[in-house]
Amino acid sequence: MDRTTLVQFIRRQEKMTPGATGEFTNLMNEVLVAAKIVSLQVNNAGLGEDILGMSGRVNVQGEEVQKLDDYANSIFIKLVGESGNICAITSEENEKPVIIPPDRAGKYIFMVDPLDGSSNIDVNVNIGTIFAVYRKQSPGLEVTDDDLLQPGTQQVAAGYIIYGPSTLFVYTSGNGVHSFTLDPALGEFFLSTQNMKIPRHGSTYSVNEGNSQNWQEPQKNLVHYLKEWDEATERPYKLRYIGSLVADFHRTLLKGGIFMYPGDKKSPQGKLRYAFEAAPLAMIVENAGGKATDGKQRILDIRPTDIHQRVPLYIGSSDDLDRAHTLLG
Ligand code: AHG
Ligand code: MN
Ligand code: MN
Ligand code: MN
């Protein structure tokens, strides 16, 4: 294990960026402290204060909010909001953006899915946090839609944390994808893998087949194709589906293959959110040599019209995505 800490690595990367001011490193330091606090709570869930179960609230997504959703949301908003580097935060759990008062604001925008995989919290299965960092685009102090509704190509950085057997911090700022493992005894994230690359092809597909009765024909044909026997194209693929996007994506990043959450007759735009889930993971997978589309167009090229916009997601190995697109038409 390399003993480079996450902050040392980010600082080194930022120093290689012309005109860097250290503000990004300062912001990411707050993100990783928030990750450590949430990780501690996740690992002690069920032991100390009652952090499991429902909060009794329904969020703007129409989902029943778990106590850990609220807890993680409050931690990331508080720490990142007080970094001095942020002028606005959008969150899956907040209907409206959190605008930072100008006297404490900075040049970045932070977008976050504070707790991904909420349905897995009480059953002790991997969950995570997904985040993206954008630059403020509009002149002056006011935060406008030009700042809040940016295409994924404008992301300065994207990352996720997985709270699992170990706590992993994976991020890219456009110069490769790098992963760090939390040493809980020291409370430090240490570099575990630099410049991660997704295999060009994998033999796993990941989708909730329980929704198949609502799929359109192309999605049905694609999954049928993946399940047919054919030695030359290494089929059938294996099915792996955890129900936590961060975990299903992380396995796909390491082993290759394809993850998909299609749109269907009931929800043509699917379930996953553009800003908090699809765009950050699309930046990561492209920096690792993979692809991410909505079935037709590149995820990163989409300019959202609402901060909670949903989008169908097909993401993973380049060869598997190319194959999928020939069947999706
Ligand atoms: P979140 O917990 O942030 O609301 O996200 C849940 C998402 C994602 O983690 C996962 O891929 C998907 O929901 C699973 O949805 P289904 O249960 O419909 O398969
Ligand atoms: Mn949710
Ligand atoms: Mn999520
Ligand atoms: Mn969530």
UniProtKB/TrEMBL annotation:
Binding site for Mg(2+) 1: 92, 113, 115
Keywords associated with the record: Carbohydrate metabolism, Cytoplasm, Hydrolase, Magnesium, Metal-binding
Metal-binding is among the record's keywords: yes
Catalytic reaction equation(s): beta-D-fructose 1,6-bisphosphate + H2O = beta-D-fructose 6-phosphate + phosphate
Domain Fructose-1-6-bisphosphatase class 1 C-terminal: 198-327
InterPro entries to which the protein is assigned, alphabetical: FBPase_C_dom, FBPase_class-1, FBPase_N, FBPtase
Residues annotated to bind substrate: 116-119, 208, 241, 271
Top enzyme class: hydrolase
Residues involved in Mg(2+) 2 binding: 113, 116, 277
Cofactor note: Binds 2 magnesium ions per subunit.
Biological or metabolic pathway of the protein: Carbohydrate biosynthesis
Residue span(s) of domain Fructose-1-6-bisphosphatase class I N-terminal: 5-193
Record GO terms (molecular function): fructose 1,6-bisphosphate 1-phosphatase activity
Localization per Swiss-Prot or TrEMBL: Cytoplasm
Main location: cytoplasm
Keyword Cytoplasm appears in the UniProt entry: yes
EC identifiers of the protein: 3.1.3.11
Cofactor: Mg(2+)
Domain of life: Bacteria
Subunit structure: Homotetramer.
Protein family membership: Belongs to the FBPase class 1 family.
Cross-referenced NCBIfam families: PRK09293.1-1
Protein name, entry field: Fructose-1,6-bisphosphatase class 1
